[in-house]
């Protein structure tokens, strides 16, 4: 037994064993370095791609917001609407036919946007259009009316309709041009939440990203089932990677200056590491 060991314990065999050991160590080190480099490269590429997608999605959102802003601004500056609300502020009685004529303005907004309903109110919050007696204070919280007054005619995005969670509300004050731009009433528009679900219009990356849109109160406007309960946590998170339903995602967020809403894109980490698993 020992004789066989002695026979193998030659200088040549020792050099061979040393060479093999060194090569194994070199290959292991090279493999670790390559794995880390490729993994970092894939993560960096994915994050860059996600930021580009988030930027494009935010641009699409801003385009939709601008469209609503422009149409509602045209509506509140309409000559007939201005005269009607000026008469109301001055104490004149507005007839049924005068109120009914506002339908033309409402139809114009609805025809060129995703707006499903247009509502007009006087300075004492009585509804001018549609033709019923519901008050503005019964529709939204008073703080939104106060904010519309502070914005002095700029569009204020309320977010989800408390009376109909499937829709989104926005409001703007009507400034009377012939009365020193004083308050003449309010215009409020309602849109279906699906109007803001434009994920299908974004570039196809070959992977299934999740797009979320939440209002300033962390209420979902666009979301998917597994993420609805986690939106507030995602908005508070500063981490680049988050876990949802035991699955890891890269998180990219964009804040809309016009609405105060937060757009979030979630990219599955498992999709990024597909190439790394082959290398492993």
Share of residues in strands: 15-25%
- Spans where pLDDT lies below 50 across 5 or more residues: none
Distance between the termini: 41 Å
Number of DSSP helices? 9
Write the element-wise H/E pattern from the N-terminal end onward: HHHHHEEHEEEEEHEEEHH
Structural class call reads alpha+beta
Oligomer designation? single chain
Mean pLDDT: 83
Shape, per Cα inertia axes = rod-shaped
> Widest sheet: strand order?
2-1-5-4-3
Biggest β-sheet: count, sense, barrel? Answer: 5 strands, antiparallel
Instruction: Please report the total strand number as a whole number.
Output: 10
Based on CA atoms alone, the radius of gyration comes out at 31 Å
Estimated helix fraction: 40-55%
Task: Characterise the protein shown here.
- The structure is a single chain.
- Helix content is 44%, strand content 24%.
- Helix 2 (11-76) runs antiparallel to helix 5.
- It is of the alpha+beta class and 280 residues long.
Brief rundown of the structure:
The mean pLDDT is 83. It is rod-shaped, with a radius of gyration of 31 Å.
List the helices and strands and how they pair.
Elements: H1 2-8, H2 11-76, H3 79-89, H4 96-100, H5 103-111, E1 115-121, E2 127-129, H6 142-151, E3 156-161, E4 164-176, E5 182-192, E6 210-214, E7 220-222, H7 231-236, E8 241-244, E9 247-255, E10 262-268, H8 269-272, H9 274-279
Antiparallel strand pairs: 1-2, 1-5, 3-4, 4-5, 6-7, 6-10, 8-9, 9-10
Helix pairs in contact: 2-5
């Amino acid at each position: 037994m020992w004789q066989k060991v002695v026979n193998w314990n030659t200088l040549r065999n020792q050099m061979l064993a040393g060479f093999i050991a060194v090569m194994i160590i070199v290959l292991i080190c090279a493999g670790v370095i390559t794995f880390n480099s490729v993994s970092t490269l894939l993560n960096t590429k994915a994050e860059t791609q996600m930021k580009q997608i988030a930027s494009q999605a935010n641009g699409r959102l801003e385009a939709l917001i601008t469209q609503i802003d422009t149409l509602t601004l045209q509506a509140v500056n309409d000559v007939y609407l201005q005269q009607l609300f000026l008469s109301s502020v001055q104490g004149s009685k507005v007839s049924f036919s005068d109120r009914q004529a506002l339908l033309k303005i409402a139809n114009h907004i609805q025809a060129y946007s995703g707006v499903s309903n247009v509502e007009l109110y006087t300075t004492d919050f009585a509804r001018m259009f549609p033709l019923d007696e519901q008050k503005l204070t019964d529709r939204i919280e008073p703080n939104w009316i106060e904010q519309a007054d502070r914005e002095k005619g700029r569009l204020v995005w309320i977010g989800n309709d408390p009376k109909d969670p499937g829709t989104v509300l926005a409001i703007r004050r009507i400034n009377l041009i012939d009365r020193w731009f004083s308050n003449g009433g309010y215009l409020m528009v309602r849109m279906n939440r699906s109007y803001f679900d434009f994920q299908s219009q974004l570039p196809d990356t070959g992977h299934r990203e999740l797009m979320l849109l939440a209002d300033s109160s962390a209420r979902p406007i666009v979301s998917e089932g597994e993420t609805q309960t986690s939106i507030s946590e995602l908005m508070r998170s500063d981490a680049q990677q988050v876990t949802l339903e035991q699955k890891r995602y890269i998180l990219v967020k964009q804040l809309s200056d016009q609405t105060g809403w937060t757009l979030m894109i979630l990219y599955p980490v498992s999709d990024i590491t597909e190439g790394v698993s082959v290398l492993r």
